[in-house]
Amino acid sequence: MEIQREYQLIKQPPVDGYCEQCGFDYDTGDLQGTVTLLIRQSADCSMALTKAAAGPDSSVVRLRPEPDVWSAIEYACHVRDVLEVQRLRIAQCLAEDRPVYAPMDRTGRVKQQKYEDQDPMEVAAALVRFAKEFGAAARVLRPQELGKLGLYNYPVRAPRTLGWVIRHTAHEIQHHRHDIIEILAKLEPPIVPKPKVEEEDVIEEVVE
């Protein structure tokens, strides 16, 4: 494995500032705009998954482009679960004085819940539903609530505001939307194959 490729596999996206991989910026955008973007991009993930699953080779959603890179269905399941877990964390933060969020165990869920075997249509529908539920919970938060702290475990154990939790959730969706679309673009067989260029045609064109 090349050093550059190995670095790409282990590199984690940032949790503050600007993400060069997907273009998300933690420092721009208001609450309502961030939530609107999150819901729209969740719908993009859902549509990309359903389109691929309904295509000429439905198994493409379960293919991993590399052994250490998730498949489209695995990323979609992760996005769905992130939305559900983060919505529950909003509720926990509002209900407790000093909330400590339990780890999501993102890697363990892949095997425990058998992401690769889940129905893509059901995952896509749940993804959109959880995005709307998260959005409904986030939109009504007042400034003092957005500033409330909870102990977050990823990527290191540290206090984080609810405002950050919302932005981080939006980053997760944007980042993995990019992953899902990029993976399917690489693996999904084209519906209309590109015409092959014959060697003789190329030679004739050069001669002329």
The CATH class: Mainly Alpha
> How far is it from the N-terminal to the C-terminal residue, by CA?
44 Å
Structural class of the secondary structure composition?
Answer: mainly alpha
Which bin fits the share of residues in helices? 55-70%
Mean pLDDT: 87
Silhouette: globular
Number-wise, the strands total 2
Oligomer: single chain
CATH superfamily descriptor? dinb family like domain
Strand arrangement in the largest pleated sheet: 1-2
Number of helices: 8
CATH topology: Four Helix Bundle (Hemerythrin (Met), subunit A)
- The helix-strand sequence is HHHHHHEEHH
Query: What does the largest sheet look like?
Result: 2 strands, antiparallel
Q: What value does the Rg take, in angstroms?
A: 20 Å
Note the beta-strand portion.
under 5%
The parts where pLDDT drops under 50 for at least 5 residues are: 1-10, 190-194, 198-208
* Count of the domains: 1
Named at the architecture level, the CATH assignment is Up-down Bundle
Organism: Kribbella kalugense
Protein name: DinB family protein
Domain DinB-like: 48-179
Topology of this protein?
Elements: H1 3-10, H2 31-53, H3 72-95, H4 106-112, H5 120-139, H6 143-146, E1 149-152, E2 158-161, H7 162-187, H8 199-207
Antiparallel strand pairs: 1-2
Helix pairs in contact: 2-3, 2-5, 2-7, 3-5, 3-7
Give a quick set of tags describing it.
disordered C terminus, 4% strand, mainly alpha, two-stranded antiparallel ribbon, Four Helix Bundle (Hemerythrin (Met), subunit A), disordered N terminus, 208 residues
